[in-house]
Amino acid sequence: MRRIKLTGRERAVLKAIGFADARPGEQIHDYTQIPLEDLTDVLNALLTAGFVESLPYREQITAADLPTMEFEVNPSYAHELKNSMQSSWT
Description:
- This protein is mainly alpha-helical.
- It has a single domain, classed as Winged helix-like DNA-binding domain superfamily/Winged helix DNA-binding domain (Arc Repressor Mutant, subunit A), CATH 1.10.10.
- It has 4 helices and 3 strands; from the N terminus they run H-E-H-H-E-E-H.
- It has helices spanning 8-17, 25-32, 36-49, 78-89, and strands at 23-24, 52-55, 70-73.
- Strands 1-3-2 form a 3-stranded antiparallel beta sheet.
- Helix 1 crosses helix 2.
């Protein structure tokens, strides 16, 4: 199993998404207060890595897409992501 290393912004976005249900992009933006272009970059990095999935499915998103999309943590990585987030806080 590989060790996942996350940036602070990636951790903030994953915390905003949560591990239970899909979260609308607008809600993630409101929670994180990350500038829209930067948030789009972070989400695209998480999508590319496979850690997050978009609804409807997209490989990449734009800032214009964000309000109409939902995002959820990929269940295949949920355990490793939780461990990575916990280890970064200790």
